[in-house]
Amino acid sequence: MPIGTINNRDVLLAPSILSADFANLGRDANAAVAAGADWLQIDVMDGVFVPNISVGLPVVASLRKAVNTTLDCHLMIVQPERYVADFAKAGANHITVHAEATTHLHRTIQQIKQLGLTAGVALNPATPLGVLDEILPYIDLVLIMSVNPGFGGQEYIQTSTAKIARLRHLLDAHGYPDMHIQVDGGVSARNVAEIAAAGANNIVAGSAIFTPQRPAAEMIELMRAALREH
Ligand SMILES: O=C(CO)[C@H](O)[C@H](O)COP(=O)(O)O
Ligand SMILES: [Fe+2]
Protein backbone atom coordinates (compact mmCIF):
# COMPACT_ATOMS: atom_id res chain seq x y z
CA MET A 1 0.00 0.00 0.00
CA PRO A 2 1.71 3.24 -1.10
CA ILE A 3 2.08 6.19 1.22
CA GLY A 4 -0.66 8.77 0.51
CA THR A 5 0.21 11.75 -1.62
CA ILE A 6 -0.07 15.06 0.16
CA ASN A 7 0.06 17.47 -2.76
CA ASN A 8 -3.28 18.86 -1.66
CA ARG A 9 -2.21 18.81 1.98
CA ASP A 10 -5.00 16.46 3.00
CA VAL A 11 -4.68 15.64 6.67
CA LEU A 12 -4.39 11.94 7.43
CA LEU A 13 -5.50 10.55 10.77
CA ALA A 14 -3.42 7.73 12.22
CA PRO A 15 -4.93 6.45 15.48
CA SER A 16 -2.35 4.91 17.78
CA ILE A 17 -3.53 1.54 19.05
CA LEU A 18 -1.53 2.11 22.25
CA SER A 19 -4.72 3.30 23.95
CA ALA A 20 -6.98 0.63 22.42
CA ASP A 21 -8.39 -2.27 24.42
CA PHE A 22 -5.72 -4.93 23.83
CA ALA A 23 -8.18 -7.68 24.70
CA ASN A 24 -10.31 -6.48 21.77
CA LEU A 25 -7.65 -5.10 19.48
CA GLY A 26 -9.12 -6.34 16.19
CA ARG A 27 -12.48 -4.85 17.10
CA ASP A 28 -11.01 -1.45 18.05
CA ALA A 29 -8.70 -1.32 15.02
CA ASN A 30 -11.56 -2.13 12.64
CA ALA A 31 -13.81 0.44 14.31
CA ALA A 32 -11.18 3.13 13.70
CA VAL A 33 -10.71 2.11 10.06
CA ALA A 34 -14.48 1.94 9.46
CA ALA A 35 -14.74 5.46 10.92
CA GLY A 36 -12.27 6.79 8.37
CA ALA A 37 -8.86 6.40 9.99
CA ASP A 38 -6.28 6.59 7.21
CA TRP A 39 -3.45 4.71 8.92
CA LEU A 40 -3.04 2.81 12.16
CA GLN A 41 0.05 3.45 14.23
CA ILE A 42 1.57 0.60 16.23
CA ASP A 43 3.87 1.90 18.98
CA VAL A 44 6.71 -0.50 19.62
CA MET A 45 8.61 0.17 22.86
CA ASP A 46 11.55 -1.80 24.19
CA GLY A 47 11.97 -0.57 27.77
CA VAL A 48 15.44 0.75 26.83
CA PHE A 49 14.99 3.59 24.36
CA VAL A 50 11.86 4.53 26.30
CA PRO A 51 10.94 3.55 29.87
CA ASN A 52 7.99 1.41 28.81
CA ILE A 53 7.39 -1.89 27.02
CA SER A 54 4.45 -2.19 24.66
CA VAL A 55 3.87 -4.58 21.77
CA GLY A 56 5.93 -6.20 19.04
CA LEU A 57 5.97 -8.42 15.98
CA PRO A 58 3.07 -10.81 16.79
CA VAL A 59 0.70 -7.87 17.25
CA VAL A 60 1.69 -6.41 13.87
CA ALA A 61 1.18 -9.80 12.23
CA SER A 62 -2.23 -10.20 13.88
CA LEU A 63 -3.37 -6.73 12.89
CA ARG A 64 -2.19 -7.36 9.34
CA LYS A 65 -4.70 -10.20 9.15
CA ALA A 66 -7.45 -8.26 10.94
CA VAL A 67 -7.47 -4.88 9.16
CA ASN A 68 -7.04 -3.54 5.66
CA THR A 69 -5.16 -0.30 6.15
CA THR A 70 -1.67 1.17 6.21
CA LEU A 71 0.15 -0.20 9.25
CA ASP A 72 2.61 2.40 10.53
CA CYS A 73 5.17 1.02 12.96
CA HIS A 74 6.67 3.67 15.23
CA LEU A 75 9.76 1.92 16.53
CA MET A 76 10.87 3.27 19.90
CA ILE A 77 13.65 0.72 20.22
CA VAL A 78 17.43 0.95 20.25
CA GLN A 79 19.23 -0.17 17.10
CA PRO A 80 16.01 -0.55 15.08
CA GLU A 81 18.07 -1.85 12.15
CA ARG A 82 18.06 -5.23 13.91
CA TYR A 83 14.30 -5.58 13.42
CA VAL A 84 13.14 -3.66 10.35
CA ALA A 85 13.12 -6.79 8.15
CA ASP A 86 11.04 -8.63 10.73
CA PHE A 87 8.50 -5.81 10.92
CA ALA A 88 8.26 -5.76 7.12
CA LYS A 89 7.66 -9.50 7.13
CA ALA A 90 5.00 -9.13 9.80
CA GLY A 91 3.07 -6.78 7.51
CA ALA A 92 4.18 -3.22 8.23
CA ASN A 93 3.68 -0.77 5.35
CA HIS A 94 5.60 2.06 6.91
CA ILE A 95 8.37 2.16 9.51
CA THR A 96 9.54 5.18 11.46
CA VAL A 97 12.78 4.99 13.42
CA HIS A 98 14.15 7.51 15.88
CA ALA A 99 17.20 9.52 14.86
CA GLU A 100 18.37 9.17 18.47
CA ALA A 101 18.14 5.37 18.47
CA THR A 102 20.55 4.40 15.71
CA THR A 103 24.14 5.30 14.96
CA HIS A 104 23.64 4.49 11.27
CA LEU A 105 20.45 6.31 10.37
CA HIS A 106 21.16 6.35 6.63
CA ARG A 107 21.84 2.62 6.51
CA THR A 108 18.68 1.89 8.49
CA ILE A 109 16.57 4.02 6.15
CA GLN A 110 18.15 2.26 3.15
CA GLN A 111 17.17 -1.09 4.67
CA ILE A 112 13.55 0.00 5.11
CA LYS A 113 13.32 1.30 1.54
CA GLN A 114 14.96 -1.82 0.11
CA LEU A 115 12.24 -3.84 1.82
CA GLY A 116 9.71 -1.88 -0.25
CA LEU A 117 8.30 0.14 2.66
CA THR A 118 8.07 3.86 3.18
CA ALA A 119 10.40 5.26 5.80
CA GLY A 120 10.18 7.93 8.45
CA VAL A 121 12.52 9.57 10.94
CA ALA A 122 11.21 10.59 14.37
CA LEU A 123 12.67 13.38 16.46
CA ASN A 124 12.27 13.63 20.22
CA PRO A 125 11.12 17.01 21.54
CA ALA A 126 14.68 18.16 22.33
CA THR A 127 16.22 16.96 19.05
CA PRO A 128 16.81 19.82 16.61
CA LEU A 129 15.59 19.74 13.01
CA GLY A 130 19.21 19.99 11.83
CA VAL A 131 19.70 16.24 12.23
CA LEU A 132 17.43 15.82 9.19
CA ASP A 133 19.71 17.74 6.81
CA GLU A 134 21.46 14.74 5.24
CA ILE A 135 18.58 12.27 5.43
CA LEU A 136 15.68 14.24 3.88
CA PRO A 137 16.34 13.04 0.31
CA TYR A 138 15.89 9.43 1.43
CA ILE A 139 12.75 9.51 3.56
CA ASP A 140 8.98 9.90 3.14
CA LEU A 141 7.98 11.23 6.55
CA VAL A 142 9.29 13.19 9.52
CA LEU A 143 7.67 12.46 12.86
CA ILE A 144 7.74 15.37 15.28
CA MET A 145 7.27 13.97 18.76
CA SER A 146 5.15 16.39 20.73
CA VAL A 147 5.60 14.45 23.98
CA ASN A 148 8.58 12.56 25.30
CA PRO A 149 8.00 9.10 23.83
CA GLY A 150 7.02 6.16 25.99
CA PHE A 151 3.47 6.72 27.15
CA GLY A 152 0.04 7.63 25.85
CA GLY A 153 -2.08 10.29 27.49
CA GLN A 154 0.61 12.93 28.03
CA GLU A 155 0.20 16.66 27.54
CA TYR A 156 1.13 18.24 24.20
CA ILE A 157 4.41 20.20 24.43
CA GLN A 158 3.44 23.64 23.14
CA THR A 159 6.78 24.49 21.51
CA SER A 160 6.15 21.61 19.08
CA THR A 161 3.85 23.84 17.02
CA ALA A 162 6.64 26.26 16.14
CA LYS A 163 8.92 23.30 15.37
CA ILE A 164 6.32 21.91 12.93
CA ALA A 165 6.02 25.30 11.24
CA ARG A 166 9.81 25.60 10.92
CA LEU A 167 9.97 22.11 9.41
CA ARG A 168 7.21 22.83 6.86
CA HIS A 169 9.03 26.04 5.89
CA LEU A 170 12.30 24.15 5.51
CA LEU A 171 10.64 21.42 3.41
CA ASP A 172 8.98 24.00 1.15
CA ALA A 173 12.25 25.93 0.79
CA HIS A 174 14.23 22.83 -0.12
CA GLY A 175 11.70 21.25 -2.47
CA TYR A 176 10.05 18.45 -0.48
CA PRO A 177 6.33 19.18 -1.00
CA ASP A 178 5.33 15.53 -0.62
CA MET A 179 7.12 14.82 2.66
CA HIS A 180 4.70 13.88 5.41
CA ILE A 181 4.96 15.78 8.67
CA GLN A 182 3.53 13.48 11.28
CA VAL A 183 2.84 14.69 14.82
CA ASP A 184 2.50 12.32 17.74
CA GLY A 185 1.65 12.96 21.37
CA GLY A 186 -1.08 14.86 23.18
CA VAL A 187 -3.11 15.59 20.04
CA SER A 188 -6.88 15.93 20.38
CA ALA A 189 -9.81 17.76 18.80
CA ARG A 190 -8.82 20.76 20.93
CA ASN A 191 -5.41 21.35 19.31
CA VAL A 192 -5.46 19.41 16.02
CA ALA A 193 -6.45 22.45 13.95
CA GLU A 194 -3.52 24.58 15.10
CA ILE A 195 -1.17 21.63 14.52
CA ALA A 196 -2.44 21.16 10.97
CA ALA A 197 -2.33 24.90 10.35
CA ALA A 198 1.34 24.87 11.34
CA GLY A 199 2.00 22.36 8.54
CA ALA A 200 1.38 18.85 9.86
CA ASN A 201 -0.56 16.56 7.53
CA ASN A 202 -0.39 13.26 9.38
CA ILE A 203 -1.86 13.20 12.86
CA VAL A 204 -1.36 10.45 15.41
CA ALA A 205 -3.74 10.29 18.34
CA GLY A 206 -4.18 7.53 20.90
CA SER A 207 -5.99 8.51 24.07
CA ALA A 208 -8.11 11.11 22.23
CA ILE A 209 -9.54 8.38 19.98
CA PHE A 210 -9.63 5.20 22.04
CA THR A 211 -11.48 6.14 25.19
CA PRO A 212 -13.73 3.83 27.19
CA GLN A 213 -16.38 6.60 27.39
CA ARG A 214 -17.12 7.13 23.71
CA PRO A 215 -16.79 5.15 20.47
CA ALA A 216 -13.69 5.73 18.32
CA ALA A 217 -15.93 6.79 15.42
CA GLU A 218 -17.27 9.73 17.43
CA MET A 219 -13.80 10.84 18.48
CA ILE A 220 -12.52 10.63 14.90
CA GLU A 221 -15.48 12.70 13.72
CA LEU A 222 -14.71 15.32 16.40
CA MET A 223 -11.15 15.59 15.04
CA ARG A 224 -12.36 15.81 11.44
CA ALA A 225 -14.84 18.51 12.44
CA ALA A 226 -12.10 20.52 14.17
CA LEU A 227 -9.97 20.23 11.02
CA ARG A 228 -12.84 21.34 8.76
CA GLU A 229 -13.60 24.36 10.90
CA HIS A 230 -10.10 25.77 11.15
O1 LIG B 1 4.34 7.31 20.39
C1 LIG B 1 3.54 7.41 21.28
C2 LIG B 1 4.00 7.52 22.69
O2 LIG B 1 5.37 7.48 22.74
C3 LIG B 1 2.06 7.37 21.01
O3 LIG B 1 1.86 7.23 19.60
C4 LIG B 1 1.37 8.61 21.47
O4 LIG B 1 1.70 8.95 22.77
C5 LIG B 1 -0.12 8.51 21.35
O5 LIG B 1 -0.73 8.71 22.54
P1 LIG B 1 -1.53 10.03 22.95
O6 LIG B 1 -2.26 10.49 21.71
O7 LIG B 1 -2.42 9.57 24.02
O8 LIG B 1 -0.52 11.07 23.39
FE1 LIG C 1 3.73 6.86 18.40
From TrEMBL:
<feature type="active site" description="Proton acceptor">
    <location>
        <position position="43"/>
    </location>
</feature>
<dbReference type="InterPro" id="IPR011060">
    <property type="entry name" value="RibuloseP-bd_barrel"/>
</dbReference>
<keyword id="KW-0119">Carbohydrate metabolism</keyword>
<comment type="similarity">
    <text>Belongs to the ribulose-phosphate 3-epimerase family.</text>
</comment>
<feature type="active site" description="Proton donor">
    <location>
        <position position="184"/>
    </location>
</feature>
<feature type="binding site">
    <location>
        <begin position="206"/>
        <end position="207"/>
    </location>
    <ligand>
        <name>substrate</name>
    </ligand>
</feature>
<feature type="binding site">
    <location>
        <begin position="184"/>
        <end position="186"/>
    </location>
    <ligand>
        <name>substrate</name>
    </ligand>
</feature>
<dbReference type="Pfam" id="PF00834">
    <property type="entry name" value="Ribul_P_3_epim"/>
</dbReference>
<feature type="binding site">
    <location>
        <position position="16"/>
    </location>
    <ligand>
        <name>substrate</name>
    </ligand>
</feature>
<dbReference type="GO" id="GO:0046872">
    <property type="term" value="F:metal ion binding"/>
</dbReference>
<keyword id="KW-0170">Cobalt</keyword>
<feature type="binding site">
    <location>
        <position position="74"/>
    </location>
    <ligand>
        <name>a divalent metal cation</name>
    </ligand>
</feature>
<feature type="binding site">
    <location>
        <position position="74"/>
    </location>
    <ligand>
        <name>substrate</name>
    </ligand>
</feature>
<dbReference type="GO" id="GO:0005737">
    <property type="term" value="C:cytoplasm"/>
</dbReference>
<feature type="binding site">
    <location>
        <position position="43"/>
    </location>
    <ligand>
        <name>a divalent metal cation</name>
    </ligand>
</feature>
<feature type="binding site">
    <location>
        <position position="184"/>
    </location>
    <ligand>
        <name>a divalent metal cation</name>
    </ligand>
</feature>
<feature type="binding site">
    <location>
        <begin position="150"/>
        <end position="153"/>
    </location>
    <ligand>
        <name>substrate</name>
    </ligand>
</feature>
<dbReference type="InterPro" id="IPR013785">
    <property type="entry name" value="Aldolase_TIM"/>
</dbReference>
<keyword id="KW-0464">Manganese</keyword>
<dbReference type="InterPro" id="IPR000056">
    <property type="entry name" value="Ribul_P_3_epim-like"/>
</dbReference>
<keyword id="KW-0413">Isomerase</keyword>
<keyword id="KW-0862">Zinc</keyword>
<dbReference type="GO" id="GO:0004750">
    <property type="term" value="F:D-ribulose-phosphate 3-epimerase activity"/>
</dbReference>
<protein>
    <recommendedName>
        <fullName>Ribulose-phosphate 3-epimerase</fullName>
        <ecNumber>5.1.3.1</ecNumber>
    </recommendedName>
</protein>
<dbReference type="GO" id="GO:0006098">
    <property type="term" value="P:pentose-phosphate shunt"/>
</dbReference>
<feature type="binding site">
    <location>
        <position position="186"/>
    </location>
    <ligand>
        <name>substrate</name>
    </ligand>
</feature>
<keyword id="KW-0479">Metal-binding</keyword>
<dbReference type="InterPro" id="IPR026019">
    <property type="entry name" value="Ribul_P_3_epim"/>
</dbReference>
<comment type="function">
    <text>Catalyzes the reversible epimerization of D-ribulose 5-phosphate to D-xylulose 5-phosphate.</text>
</comment>
<comment type="pathway">
    <text>Carbohydrate degradation.</text>
</comment>
<dbReference type="GO" id="GO:0019323">
    <property type="term" value="P:pentose catabolic process"/>
</dbReference>
